[in-house]
Amino acid sequence: MSVSFQTSPGTSPTLQASGVRKSFVSGRVESTVLHDLTLDVRGGELTLISGPSGCGKSTLLAILSGLQPADGGKVHALGHELSGMSMRALEHFRLQHTGFVFQGFNLFPALSALEQVELPLSYMGLDKTTARKRAIDSLEEVGLGPRMSLRPAELSGGEKQRVAIARALAKQPELLFADEPTSALDAANGQIVIDILHRIARNHGTTVLCVSHDPRLVGHADRVLAMEDGRILSDHVPDVSQPAAPEAKEPSA
Amino acid sequence: MVALARKTLVHEWRRFLPAILAVGFASLLQLLQAALVLGIFGSASVYITGSSGDLWAGYPGTQSVNLGRPISEDIAMRLRMDPDVTKVEPFRWVDADWRGPRDTGGVSVFVSGIDTSPDALMFSKALPPALRARLNEPGAVIVDKADLDSLGVTIGDTAAINGQRVRVVGVSSGLRALGGVNIVSSLDTARVLDVAPEDAGMMTYFVAKLRDPSKAKAVAQRLNGSDAFGPYTVWTAKDFARQSQLYWMLDTGAGAGVLFLAGIVFLVGAVITSQTLIAAVIGSIREYATLNALGVGRGALRKVIMEQAFWVGLLGIVCSVVIGIVLLIIARNRSVPMELHPLTAAACLTLSMALAIVSGLAAMRSLRRADPASLLR
């Protein structure tokens, strides 16, 4: 695996957060999840945000991807300012530019793998042939070419997650967000999934932002941001020589 | 476009079955109720709809055909004087009391005294000429086959009407009456059976045939102009039939009952259907949320739900139509008065589809829970 410092200064960031704040109120208690967080994410690399649960990493992902508004600060994605956009404009932005992979695979039980992937494409206004071709290409890219006519019930967990990745990938997004994509998978399947995500970043120049507390992923990322209590503690390029070393689990700044 | 709504419906049919059945039952109930009401109250006007007269002349202000009062013979003259009238025929209605040979007690009967000639207007659609000719025998009567039991007779039996001897010479079908039993006889027999002295020599209605039936409305209006021949009103057959049916429907409170029941059926059906659809939406809420995360708009997701509601409605309606047709055939074979016009059926089915659509709208609200941010854990 080739990890280098080409990801450092030079490549312009595709995703920028500056002074992002978010807090939740439950009852009378207001708890701040993100404290004036500033962050740049660059294209063509897999950026991993890791940290213990409750550190605010999923909230950060939601804000960076336009799923949730921040309480303060600004988010720039591909030159668009997300903070002021209406719900409809955000939906349109997500439709055109983003892909998502979630911990749960969230596949429609009634649809075959191919149809799962085609479904969002048809809403993008692609014609049937283009959509079909893109869906097939994406499924082949994640190694599911021979199984694309199967329904979720006939697929293993790892295969389902690969369908979910193909569904995101077929949109040819500039931004691909993954939330705990390997948490529900065994080691082998987790490995396959993270490899695919990494490959997508390399081959398509996609900005892949992955949130996970899975220590196995650290060695596969181009850049690892360690988060705790709503702040980024460290930002480093993982050591390739020891990909999944336990000490890489909680890097200190 | 991937047919998400339809594929989900087929794949998860068990989930949608209660909704389909709810729409189906609601639709079937509406259809049968309408058919039954129309059938029962349609028999209030069987004297008019079973005959081929274009105009009916009767006592002024008569609200329903069974409430006719004697009118003067002169009115027949007035009708004949109109250039558009080709034929005028009397119809004598006698309210009477029946005593059968078997122990049936008194039965209230309506005797229809009609012209027995083969080309007569009265009951031309209900009685074939051969059967009609048998009425020429004095004291001969025809009863509906569905009434044989309640009258306690079979063909050939004798009985008494208003104390006069009559003989059953044949049976008809489709001549059941509301609130009593129809008996058909010749005009002469009816005159003998009519014991009320003030009715002597008086007919109840005069039925007229027109050269051009499409002019019925205009001719009726023209004839209603004068009272020179005694008091009377002329109706077109269609108006008088509708008036009689409406009278019964409103008089018995059945109209309000029908509307009330339709409302209940609609409400219950909508509750079951919407709950089922809501459960289906909630069952797929994470998938919908994922689509929304990928940028598929709420509007597009709502459309999927509405499409599902539409298919549920359509399947329910198809079920109800199939079962409804079977039941209507059975009912017809058993002389149950049921009648369904295409327009009424269409109205019932539209109501059922509206039920499905309203349920879809209710289910659409639960899409609000499809928040993609909730998928991030």
Automatic annotation (TrEMBL), chain A:
Annotated coiled-coil segments of the chain: none
Asked if the Swiss-Prot or TrEMBL record annotates the protein with the keyword Transport, the reply is yes
What InterPro entries does the annotation carry? AAA+_ATPase (IPR003593), ABC_transporter-like_ATP-bd (IPR003439), ABC_transporter-like_CS (IPR017871), ABC_transpr_LolD-like (IPR015854), MacB-like_ATP-bd (IPR017911), P-loop_NTPase (IPR027417)
Which positions fall inside the ABC transporter domain?
Answer: 15-252
Q: Which GO terms describe its molecular function?
A: ATP binding
| Gene3D superfamilies, sorted | P-loop containing nucleotide triphosphate hydrolases
Keyword Nucleotide-binding in the entry? The reply is yes
Keywords attached to this Swiss-Prot or TrEMBL record, sorted alphabetically, are:
ATP-binding, Nucleotide-binding, Transport
Q: Which SMART domains match?
A: AAA
SUPFAM superfamilies with a match to the protein in the record: P-loop containing nucleoside triphosphate hydrolases
Question: What is the protein name stated in its UniProt record?
Answer: ABC transporter ATP-binding protein
From TrEMBL, chain B:
Location comes to:
Cell membrane
What residues does the MacB-like periplasmic core domain cover?
35-224
Q: Where are the transmembrane segments?
A: 16-41, 246-272, 309-331, 343-364
Main location class = membrane
Q: Does the keyword Transmembrane helix apply?
A: yes
Q: Which domain of life is it from?
A: Bacteria
Question: What Pfam families does this protein map onto?
Answer: FtsX, MacB_PCD
What is the membrane topology noted in the UniProt record heading this document? Multi-pass membrane protein
Can you give the residue ranges of the ABC3 transporter permease C-terminal domain? 260-372
Keyword annotations of the record: Cell membrane, Membrane, Transmembrane, Transmembrane helix, Transport
Q: What is this protein called?
A: FtsX-like permease family protein
